[in-house]
Specification:
5-stranded antiparallel β-sheet; 15 helices; alpha+beta; Phosphorylase Kinase, domain 1; 15 strands; about 425 residues; Aminoglycoside 3'-phosphotransferase, Chain: A, domain 2
Length: about 425
Amino acid sequence: MRTFSSTRHVDPISGSHDRHVLIDDPLLPAAAHLTGPDAADVLRPAVEASGGELVSCRTSQVQYRPQSDLVVRYRCVIRRDGSDTSDTLLAATTIGGPHAGTVPIEAHTSDGTLLTVGVWRWPFDPVLGDLAAMVTPQTAATELQDVIGDRLSLEVVAYRPTERAVVRASGRRGEVYVKLVPPASVEHLARRHDVLSAAGLPVPRVVATGRGWVAMEALSGTTLRDRLKGGGPLPPAAALGDLIARLAEIDPVALHDVVGGGPTRSRLDDAPHHAAMLATVLPAERQRMTAIVERLTSATSPVNRAVATVHGDLHEGQVVVDDDGVIGLLDIDDVGPGDPLDDVAVLIAHLEFRALTSGDGRIEEYADHVSDTVGADRDAAAVERQVAAVLIGLATGPFRIQQPDWSATTARVLDLVEQHLDAAERCSVGVATG
């Protein structure tokens, strides 16, 4: 049972947890058993099949797409040969059945409904096939020795189960960031880096690739997110606007011809799905979410959207800065044709979200400055609506990472969503009567 191997590896980043939430999704009947008090009953057979005993478990991360899939990560204590150890287990239920390579767990409810779940142990992700190798020092050292030398040190920077992970690898000759992706995505990701670099964008250079990973040079400087957290000079807002403009100058048709892929989804299209997720985990907010989606969708039309090359997820964690300004652009997996207003809105919304959740007046002031600068010369009502759409997605974050008191934080973010929709409606009225 390879998914429960005891090989030494680097742990994933951990999360906190909140109260149990029962997800009632008719297309995912097993979902309620993964986020509620029954989770231990789902995990226990997989642990026992590998010769262990599940002592305890608690939810640390929830990744949920209504009527599609649910992946839950747990921090567990497992007893083997009389010794207790901490471990990370994951369980998923999808409309397509368990992922290949997981331990399938099946049960029938009293009404005969079949519940099917796939369980695996970190780092044996069923989709990211090379993840285990790249967080295990011995095998990672073999793959990366020609790039960074010996004395390897590994740190998991990010992990989104079944989608992607990022590992920082340091050696005697330097440091790289290794992105783990499905094998079919490796060539496309490497090409994106080459094309954007040739166009003058400050993206990291690809230094090595494997079956399911891409290693990139570590850029000097720090992310804008780290600057906001730790203090230090912030880049001029105009530099962020310039980054969006430089991306938009790349011919989206020519980019597609080289790297393939489809259009970048607009946050306006994603917002109803995120709202459905929030309505499921916060039933008390269901009526509010319905009203928000109606206000958002009634005033938007995909026909009017511009098309240019966009980043697709341009938040403060993707921008590398130094004391002189912007020097790097990260996470370009989703670069492709889309509406540049999405990049503007993602940047503004993330800054506002960070200001709201941190209570830091400096971040709030910077968010306002960026909004005034990068949103200038654009349809004000459209900017407000697009920012509202992004914030709906961000409102799912506190639940996904099981942040303490996540429901109260979510409610505050939804207040901000409504403020932007109010502003959009005022702008629209002003234009109509002007």
